[in-house]
Amino acid sequence: MDTVLLGLPLGELLLILVVLLLCGLFAGFLAGLLGIGGGVIFVPCFYLIFHYVFNVPADTSMIVATGTSLLCMIPTSISAARSQYRRGNMDVEVIKKWAVAMLIGVAAGTVISKYYGGKWLAALFGGVMIINSVNTLIRAKAKPAFDTLPRRPFQQLIAFCIACFSSMLGIGGGTLTVPVLNACSVPPHKSIGTSSAVSLFVCVPGALLMILMNISATPPDAPVGTIGLVNVLAAACVICVSVFAAPLGVAIGRNIKPVTLKRIFAVMLFIISVRMLISGLCD
Q1: What does each of the 283 residues of the chain score in pLDDT, given as a tens digit?
Q2: At CB < 8 A and 24+ separation, what contacts does 93-99 make?
Q3: In terms of pTM, does the model score above 0.90?
């Protein structure tokens, strides 16, 4: 008779743990290499595991996946941001201008996700990321659309929108920040370094709100180990390895041409996004 833990056969549970550990390594590496915070890997991975392995309804799976992703990105983003700052790749002035607007955006996105989240978020995640990836791939060699960043009020509006959508989708902030900064003539390596700091402003308050706002109302059909809208067991598996992979991504990224970085970013994003869009529309 097979040993059962957390409602699953031991062999199946061990396989899930291995997948989660690999997910953490891959996401941490990409966080450092591309400045994307890891959320584009965490969200689909958690969603698929919660929904198809633990048989959690799609709506609950997506909401918990976004909250768990935000928690997982805290150490990854810290590690990536520290490495980028040490290498001079971070625009601190941009972070100062965006800080308050990002915090307000996170609060708005978290509330929207709590009350209106569900399977539609998977479709939204896929749709937004597909557009983002195609635009990045097509414009990999294109000249920036603008010579500089807009005036401060418009920058704050951009920061609010990035933080709001990122907290809703559990993607940190780098995925949307990098294309915006590149379009405003910020060099790719500087864009990636700055986006690592943006991810911190999204994932830290976002994860805390996902836990605290829902701690007394954890969905009854959520996977084992869920507190509020965050699955701490899944987070623990990926956090322990992702933080060590981020500096490696930063180091390798310094030796890659900017155009190549953009293409890697776009292709990875497209593949993952198509899967999420299909899942959100068809499940």
Answers
A1: 557 666 667 777 787 788 778 877 877 777 677 666 567 778 877 887 888 777 888 888 888 988 998 998 888 778 778 888 888 888 888 999 999 999 999 999 888 877 776 667 767 777 777 776 777 677 656 677 777 888 988 999 999 999 998 888 887 777 788 888 888 888 878 888 888 889 888 989 999 998 887 777 778 888 878 888 899 888 888 888 877 787 787 787 777 776 777 677 777 777 767 766 776 666 5
A2: 94/149, 94/155, 94/181, 94/194, 95/194, 95/197, 95/198, 95/201, 97/152, 97/155, 97/156, 97/159, 98/155, 98/156, 98/158, 98/159, 98/198, 98/201, 99/201
A3: no
